[in-house]
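lol so apparently i was supposed to do this last week
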Amino acid sequence: MDIRGLTLEELEQLVAAAGEKRFRAEQLARWIYGRAAESFDQMLELPREFREKLKYQFKIGSAATASAARSSDGTRKLLVALADGEKIETVIIPGRDRLTLCISSQAGCAMGCAFCATARMGLRRNLDTGEILSQLFLARRELDAGEEITNYVFMGMGEPLANYPRLLKALKIMTSRWGMGISARRITVSTVGLAPGMERLLAEIPVRLAVSLHATTDELRDRIAPLNRRYPLKTLLETCKRVPLKHRDRITFEYVMLRGVNDSADDARRLVRLLGPLRAKVNLIFFNPFAGAGFEPASRAAVEDFQAILQRGNLTATIRESRGADIAAACGQLYAEQGASHADSL
Ligand code: SAH
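anyway here it is w/ S-adenosyl-L-homocysteine bound
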């Protein structure tokens, strides 16, 4: 069993069961999270007998990197092989003043968005907390000298809020002082709109929230993001109004621009009306094509016109430039071929 995935509380239980003093739990947490220890032998201040017990019961870290591919723009995609052979992808994305890690929450995804490659895999399974966290430790090994991850986004494979309890535990470990000490302000959870989970999550932990909207009518959203049939626009946006946000925070609405589908001036005007009453900003995303997608990216002119309409409507709107497309590491291109080597899938 992987020890990296246990909360301080769980480590305390383990320490108590082993008849050790309570403060050993925090020491253990520091080693496995803060100092990224790879073996119990390193933990010299722990009693030798306790270390032997731990060695017998636990491993540190659950997954291994099968391979990493590097894009011409510096984006790196890691194909992570899990213990049972399932594969997930994790992406390191350099920006001007940041280095973002894009984390997967599930192997595959059950949400069925029409324009997303991961959806075509279906849901293989949830990741456990250790597997979610292992992506951070594996990614750190791929960094160049002087590089440090500054931002974390749950925008890899899967729907994070469909794996809620394990996600929450991972977020607690990431943001706690006894854990990895990452500021919640630097973590974004992106969801296709599992409304109840959005409220619950932000009440627990002040991460940033991104909502994948992509459509301004239920008719279209039902079709391209079918979770909309369960949580239609009205429900979703009312929930967005209610979620507890820190003082000046806003929800980011992601909007993949699909040619002739959702990229018209009417769509932009409807978006202004829908989001006007909310603390919102919009991130327009170029659609990243993949084989058999059945959609085309909107033209740059259409994206810029769309952005201009949003801005005239007093909505902050940015355009997300596509990164890592040459290694199929861009948004919506993550697709792990089970059983195939990474080289085969490139
Ligand atoms: N399930 C979550 C997080 C994973 S997807 C969610 O839906 O938000 C991360 C982002 O990539 C989402 O906004 C998603 O809609 C977008 N995306 C999916 N397929 C894409 C594609 N082919 N091109 C561009 N963006 C895509």
